[in-house]
Amino acid sequence: DEPCDVKNIDSSVKDCESVRETCPDKIQDLKVGDCELTEFDFCDKVLVLADSDDEDIEKVLRDPNPHIEDEQIKTAVETLNLTLEEAFFLSYALGCLQVIDMSGQTMGLKLLWHTFCEIKPDFVESYVAYHYFRAKGWIVKSGYKFGGNFLLYKQGPPFFHATYVVLVEKVDSQLNRCNGSLTWPRLHGLNRLAENSGKDIITCQIVFPDNLTPEDLMTPKSLPKFQVNEQLTKRWISSQERIEKEQS
């Protein structure tokens, strides 16, 4: 690629200005068939000008022959689906997302928090874990495919496979499990699954303080009160440890 040339950029700007001055009627009064266009629909139409690489540049400037044609390559409309944790993080932490309800009203953070807690009973501990790992620079995605709550990526799924599978636990101030869902057989099975896919398991404990009331949980102002403990879990293989000791 050639380096950027200010002279060439200025020339291009002057060429465009020359086209507007030379034939303003052709720029302003564009027609498709017998129908004048007052507004352009850029999703369906495209503005075509004469070839600017033509050797007779003076001819092109005198008559650029602007006309509208149908866009041959249709624009693909993609839908972005956000999880509850992703949506609340964009609204609460980054402030770059507004959520609209079915009546067209913007939902405030308190209403958004209350609604998400009703939709997902474990949303509080799930969001605390999500926010915690996002703040540490990880790209956090759903981990249901591998039996966990989240997957942690260094830069995202297009660049690397996930490094960790995250299991979220709700515990009290004495680190006693509140839901009892993480049993040793389940942990052993998830660990084997993670090993086969080249991942490690992180157990993320969300500590609920004793002085936290149900009223506190109804607002995101309670988020700073939570503590997070993370533990890296690996399966111990005695034969592998013996080989490593012999080699050392």
Automatic annotation (TrEMBL):
Lyase in keyword set: yes
**Catalytic residues identified in the record:** Y153, H161, K199
User: Which keywords does this chain's UniProt record carry?
Assistant: Lyase, tRNA processing
A GO term from the CC aspect: cytoplasm
List, for all copies, the residue spans of the domain called tRNA intron endonuclease catalytic. 123-204
* EC number(s) reported in the record: 4.6.1.16
Which PANTHER family did the record assign?
A: TRNA-SPLICING ENDONUCLEASE SUBUNIT SEN2
Instruction: Quote the protein name from its UniProt record.
Output: tRNA-intron lyase
This protein's species is Graphocephala atropunctata
Q: What is the lineage of its organism?
A: Eukaryota, Metazoa, Ecdysozoa, Arthropoda, Hexapoda
